[in-house]
Amino acid sequence: MRGPGGRPLVPLRHGADHFGRYTSRMRRVPGSRISRRPSCHTRHMRVVVGWLLVLLLGTAAVLTLNPEWLARLNPDWAGLTTTYPISQVVALRPLLAAVFAVLALVVLAVGVFRRTRMRRGIKTLTLGLVLLAVAIGHAWVVWDRGMDNPGGLSADDGVRPAGAGTGAITVLTYNTLDGRTTAEDVADLAGQNGADIIALPETSLATAEEVAALMLAEGAPFQVFVDVKGEPAIGSTALLVASTLGEYVQTSAPETSFGAVRAEPASGVGPPVVAVHVSPPISRLTAQWQADLEAVTALCRGRDAAGLVVAGDLNATLDHRPLQDLGGCADAALAGGVGGVSTWPVRTPAWLGSAIDHVLVDTGRYRVTEAAVVQRGESDHRGVVARLLPGE
């Protein structure tokens, strides 16, 4: 009989079994090698390292729920949600819920196998349960923000129309993708929902004026304001304000990469309105996106936030830090129960994408009575429409 490396092992007889065969122990022949079980110290270190790995992976998974939690430990770590590529990941919370659910099922299956066949797997099962809890957490956040989308506002909610200073004001925002959601589409949506304010990122002056003409034909005159920065196809932002809100004048808007329009009542009852289009958060434009987003959300935290309405394509979700601190403003989709419905991209189901188009309103002046995510035309965005009433 030979051991590892072909070296001989000499049996030592110490008794016979019930078949009459000799059992034996193996005596080590000098120069031979016999495998040894790991020492207690080594096994202990393996256990410690294993649990540390579970702790590390579990903590990383939990932090995907809100990376800004780290700022509570160190203020210098604030702003992780606007740091590339974390900014891309946190924008896809519904997808994160699905990914963590799949990972949890796989890890739990491995843990059960190890536990039943090898009497091991406690660490694997623990990690699987953490991943499952994170998946449920992501799904709960989306669900809690609201997924019951009516697709439009009610035709008659028992409130007075805008114009009297105490009536409803309806706001519609739609990124038309350079008119792929056409003027007819926008006018139809605005008419069906009784829009008084229409914010249209990626919309030319010609398209905006066509929308106004179509609305006028239906007996609803609108003023048109446009600002263009950069490439006209994506840098043109239009704002239409119903004449029932009184006369408006265009004033200084926040400094952003794309067009931004601010209009204030010269003699009327309507709110100050800002239509915006924030730069996308792709790698080479991260700094630009951060500056644009800060400039827009700062409006809600500034001195001139009273009665303010901000609408447009912010290219950010409620999970990005600037939208977690809106001062006196609230997100109308969230307040209206559709904050979990995605507005981009339309090629994915409404429960899977990102809610990056927003209507922000000063809660000291207005309350949201209802909201909806709407879709028309060939744009890659869905729109948001919200009805506001002066606060009580």
Q: Determine the mean pLDDT.
A: 89
- In DSSP terms (H or I, runs of 4 or more residues), the helix count works out at 10
What is the succession of H and E elements? EEHHHHEHEHEHEEEEHEHEHEEE
CATH architecture of the largest domain: 4-Layer Sandwich
**The CATH top-level class label of the largest domain:** Alpha Beta
Low-confidence stretches: 12-16, 19-26, 157-165
Q: What is the strand tally?
A: 14
State the helical fraction. 25-40%
Q: What is the general shape?
A: elongated
Task: Please state the oligomeric state of the protein chains shown.
Answer: single chain
Share in β-strands: 15-25%
Pick out its properties.
single chain; 392 residues; alpha+beta; Deoxyribonuclease I, Chain A; six-stranded mixed β-sheet; 10 helices; Endo/exonuclease/phosphatase; Endo/exonu/phosph_ase_sf; transmembrane; nuclease
Describe the structure.
- With 392 residues, this protein is α+β, with helices and mostly antiparallel strands.
- It has three domains: 1-35, no CATH class; 47-145, no CATH class; 169-390, 4-Layer Sandwich (Deoxyribonuclease I, Chain A).
- Helices cover 33% and strands 22% of the residues.
- It has helices spanning 40-63, 86-90, 93-118, 122-145, 183-193, 205-217, 232-235, 286-301, 321-324, 332-335, and strands at residues 10-16, 22-27, 169-173, 197-201, 222-228, 236-242, 246-251, 261-268, 273-277, 309-313, 329-331, 357-362, 366-374, 383-390.
- A six-stranded mixed β-sheet has the order 5-6-4-3-14-13. Strands 7-8-9-10-12-11 form a six-stranded mixed β-sheet. Strands 1-2 form a two-stranded antiparallel sheet.
- It is elongated.
- 41% of the residues are buried.
- The model is unreliable at 12-16, 19-26 and 157-165 (pLDDT under 50).
